[in-house]
Amino acid sequence: MPTRFDVLIIGTGLAGLTLALHSADRKRVALVTKKQLIDGASDWAQGGIAAVLAGDDTTESHIRDTLVASAGLSNAQVTRHVVEHGRDCIQWLISQGVPFTRDAASDTGYHLTTEGGHSHRRVIHAADATGHAVQATLESKVRAHPNITLFEHHNTIDLITGAKLGLTDNRCYGCYALETETGKVHAIAAQHTVLATGGAGKVYLYTTNPDTSTGDGIAMGWRAGCRVANMEFIQFHPTCLYHPQAKSFLISEAVRGEGGILTLPDGTRFMTGHDPRAELAPRDIVARAIDYEMKKHGLECVHLDISHQPADFIRAHFPTIYARCLDFGIDITRQPIPVVPAAHYTCGGIMADRSGRTDLPGLYAIGETAFTGLHGANRLASNSLLECLVFGMAASSDILAQPAMPCPDLPQWDESRVTDADEEIVISHNWDELRRFMWDYVGIVRTNKRLERALHRIRLLQEEIHDYYANFRVTNDLLELRNLVTTAELIVRSALMRHESRGLHFSLDYPDTLAEARNTILVR
């Protein structure tokens, strides 16, 4: 298998696959993924993709909804750029064969739903499994493309930079990747490297994210010298299924968009007392409201009830959710769904411009890994897949416009001074400790005291993990833990720097919102 490419994409969510397919006709592309090609958060996306498609909708309305949800922190120019490219992105997916749900009565020919924070029906979807429909469609094209080489079951260890090679030209030249099934480490060289590894939901005990969401791209970009921004803004999805056997199963925002109401266990509706938009308020408001009601009443969960809708309507619009809940003995056509908030989306990340370029020449960041300025202090529902599409295409255009660059020979990974680990239980204990104290101290509602406690614990874990990394052969679990601890530090440091409550960051020490909205930027 070749190890030298024009474009190296680390991560195979929608952003990575979009970039690969737009580049592969002219470039040799490598796709590196920790598991199989579409094992990631994009495949789990239920709701859909927000875009201005209907005749009664407007670009200005979508921009306004995004800026409002962002608590004034979205970049207006970036937001306009993304929204204006929405229709073209959807048309590209349709041309690839994505089976979006049809609606003959709609002026678009497709069923459009609404979600929290949206003033119009503009979320195009494939029933309640949009991410899987999109990813499966693109996967078949990626696997068939002769210019795309797949490195499945490869976990990236770190980026290779000019500084690490002792060169005066400090650009990114590729990465080292661990082949997890054999333990071999490969040096993969590329003229252009793209971080598209998704978010960091697994830094928390409860999350809607898959196990692969361990902040890898953010941590690698930070270690390579890139700035990160707004890491304190972790979006907690208000409605994750609460059941002892249900791991990370999201109940789509579209359930509320189609009339679902949030209630206490006795059936009392409570969102009307928290926001005039009730269940369709932005996610940060709904998540805090649920957190408040659970603490006030000593509850383990609240309920989301859509059983007042016709059973056929529910089964047609939410077949995946209906079937999954039924597996756990919950018939959502007759019963409310027990739900709790859970870590869902990383709004901050590696700073990238409108072409996805980072601070390090030759390195791009796109998708949830990147901070582009679109989401601000809170992501508007279904803008995430749209961002993946727009920036995947933009990064491809920028890469295709670049002249060919020489790439030095990369040294092989050196394991001459390390041994096999003798106590791998240390990794699992540290992983569990990190996720628990991040949930307890850096959750939906924060205080300086809790954040400082978390940072102290992170420092201790970092020392232990650094010693482990330096002395033992790398493993998949060690690499993920190393990245999670780095990402946790960035989240806590960013949260300590924000002396206000805004969007997803709510501090009891600073409950007011400052007049001027500013990004939190960390420099290594």
Number of strands: 20
What is the beta-strand fraction? 15-25%
Class by SSE composition: alpha/beta
Number of separate helices: 16
Q: Main β-sheet: number of strands, strand sense, barrel status?
A: 7 strands, mixed
Shape: globular
Oligomer description: single chain
Q: In angstroms, what separates the terminal alpha carbons? A: 35 Å
Unreliable residue runs: none
> What gyration radius follows from the Cα positions, in whole Å?
22 Å
Helix % is: 25-40%
Mean pLDDT: 94
SSE layout:
Layout lengths: L3 E7 L3 H10 L5 E4 L8 H4 L4 E2 L8 H11 L6 H9 L1 H11 L15 E2 L9 E2 L5 H15 L3 E4 L2 E8 H4 L6 E8 L4 E12 L20 H8 L4 E2 L4 E8 L11 H5 L3 E3 L19 H15 L4 E4 L5 H7 L1 H9 L9 E10 L2 E3 L11 E3 L4 E2 L12 H17 L24 H17 L3 E2 L1 H24 L4 H22 L8 E2 L13 E2 L2
